[in-house]
Amino acid sequence: MDDLLAGSEIKLLKNGDMVEGIIMSVKKHEIWVDLGPNGVGVILRREAGSGDMKEGDSVTASVVDPELDEGYALLSMKRAVKERGWTELQRVFEEQEIVEVSPYDANRGGLLIELEGIRGFLPVSQLSAEHYPRVEGSDKDEILTKLNSLVNKTLRVRILDVSRRDNKLIFSEKEAIRDDMASRLAELKVGDVVEGVVTGVIDFGAFVNVDGIEGLVHISEISWERVEDPRKYVKVGDKVKAKIIAIDKDRLSLSIKQMSEDPWLSEVKGFKKGDTVEGKITRITPFGAFVQLSPAVEALVHVSEMSDDESVDPEAIFKLNEKKKFKVIDIDTDNRKIALSLRDVK
Prior knowledge:
Elements: H1 2-7, E1 18-26, E2 30-34, E3 40-44, E4 58-65, E5 73-76, H2 77-94, E6 99-101, E7 105-107, E8 110-115, E9 118-123, H3 140-148, E10 155-163, E11 168-172, H4 173-176, H5 178-186, E12 193-202, E13 205-210, E14 213-218, E15 239-248, E16 251-255, H6 263-267, E17 276-285, E18 288-292, E19 298-302, H7 314-317, E20 323-332, E21 337-341
């Protein structure tokens, strides 16, 4: 018999084979399929999927057991769908195709996605700058809220990793826009003025989405004034213009303040070495005190210029927001520094 089978076109079924057949009968709990030379197969209802089926329909199924005690094969249409799905996903991965997906759910780590009947995951770290959930600190509830806003939204992604054996499917939105972003970055240079939308505001600055490219405006580049809290100057959703001051791989360093002339340069012209000036104490440190001379000009009175007493304590001499008179002892325009003396005034 084995020799006869080997010499014919009939191949013995084995577990995992994909077979095609014609539905012979549709019962309440099972579907019977004519497999031609391979005999008869049965598909249990739970393995048939949700589609309507009737006698005469062609079906494709995966062999679960090639021969039950009764002599027919046990089949699964659901498994067949998955088998074809994994094959297609492997092809998409190898050819680095960009596909469109719609997340069906989210958790704090990322988005849940189903493609070709296989469930996968898009980690937060693989989201584009446009969709990355910028939040203060590590507020996981706020991250989840922002991720939920992406559920059912169409995203363009690439498959980052696929493993049928490990049942693993990982997507990346960043990879899908990588080539496009690289070409856009190549067109930009330091000094260019760009427009973007603020996507996050944190203690050290603000993140800005510039046509899909992530930019950072450091707190020191938000305003010519001393900025204590960036939130008082920009908020999420604001459209801003900024100058590119550095390009680091796939991120831009931006400056909002350089879009306007430095007021320090014009206001400092009102002071000269030897002048007696009045200013308000803005900060007190162990090495000295900072003094506001005009809206844009801040100067330093070093501890050595406070008193003849070498052990002087700045906090014993100054109080925040009080006004005092000082003598200008140096103006360094290149480094935007002015040195004052309290001792010389006395």
